Amino acid sequence: MPPQHLRLLVADRCNLDCAYCHFQASKAGRDLMSPAVARDAIRAFAAAAAARGHARADLSLYGGEPLLNLPAVEAALDEADSLRAGGFDFFAILNTNGTLITTELAARLARAGVDVHVSLDGPDEQANARRVNYVGRPSWPAVTAGLTRAREAGCAVQINSILTAQTAEDLRALIDFVADLGCRQIFMALPDGMIDVSGADARARLLLAARAYARGRGLVFNGPWGIGLRRESRAPLEWPPLNVIVRPAGAAFLPYVPQHAFPSARRRARSRGSRRPSPSSRWSEPRSTCAYARFRRTTSPSATR
Ligand code: SF4
């Protein structure tokens, strides 16, 4: 069965200003998750999963850029640790742009057994030219430095990328770059998901060839299209039965339990005198996730051609 999955949007802001990100005005003024909300969410999720008979779950620390909120990241890792000691195992994943990974932080992430997932558009500065900071400087030097620190500290590192006309041109170069860094896996998302089947045959051939090449370099190469391959092999197709996203202020997107907010978030809202979020705002899709931003951008007709 696929793992249960809790995703905490710990920072609704980012230190980069990628050209395709719809989350442009992200420098300041947006919410950071409090450590109390992070702890509440993890405890509540573990209790719900345990009640369904599960003893482990994935925990994604997400943004924006989650490393802009180290107190919440630390609180989440500590809470996961204490639940682990009580018998519920969280597998922690950090979804980051990689620019803020210091040597000390890399060591902390390695000690906590965190999988580090870094978004990249390709294997060099030119391929990542649209991933820039707020004064237009390339993020590439900081990303590669952060990636290297994470690897040297012993973190398992996965690269997240999207199959666009640009990345498709030289998947082998990306695979070689990632393999040379000693990373474990490339997750290659599709710009049009599983819905648009135009060009599907050519894309499938490309992905399967890339997967075979990656395997030769000791890398796992997969993506949402792997589900289609599982279907071919007649393995049962299942989705995580408990898949929860929690916004910075504590409102949760829960497929099975609508309109939930964790107690610390409700206390904070009351102390601010703010009104409860409307049901529709609680149920709208999260806007600040990096992969989601790039997905939106790359689904434009000009980008997928
Ligand atoms: S695409 Fe991701 S890394 Fe780039 S600005 Fe948006 S949230 Fe930040």
List keywords for this structure.
single chain; 305 residues; alpha/beta; TIM Barrel; ten-stranded mixed sheet; 41% helix; disordered C terminus; binds iron/sulfur cluster
What is the fold's blueprint, element by element?
Blueprint: E1 4-9, H1 35-51, E2 56-62, H2 70-85, E3 89-96, H3 103-111, E4 115-119, H4 140-153, E5 157-162, H5 165-169, H6 171-181, E6 185-189, H7 200-216, E7 220-222, H8 226-232, E8 243-246, E9 251-253, E10 260-261, H9 263-272, H10 279-283, H11 290-298, H12 301-304
Parallel strand pairs: 1-2, 1-8, 2-3, 3-4, 4-5, 5-6, 6-7
Antiparallel strand pairs: 8-9, 9-10
Helix pairs in contact: 1-2, 3-4
Bound molecules: iron/sulfur cluster (SF4).
What does this structure look like?
This protein has 305 residues and is an alpha/beta fold. 41% of the residues lie in helices and 16% in strands. The protein has a ten-stranded mixed β-sheet. Mean pLDDT is 80; it is low at 231-240, 275-289 and 291-305. The protein binds iron/sulfur cluster. Residues 14, 16-18, 21, 23, 64-65, 97, 131, 290, 293-294 line the site of iron/sulfur cluster.
The number of helical runs is 12
Following the backbone from N to C, one meets helices and strands in this order, namely EHEHEHEHEHHEHEHEEEHHHH
Percent in strands: 15-25%
Q: CATH topology of the largest domain, what is it called?
A: TIM Barrel
| CA-atom Rg in angstroms | 19 Å
Distance between the termini: 36 Å
What is the correct CATH architecture of the largest domain? Alpha-Beta Barrel
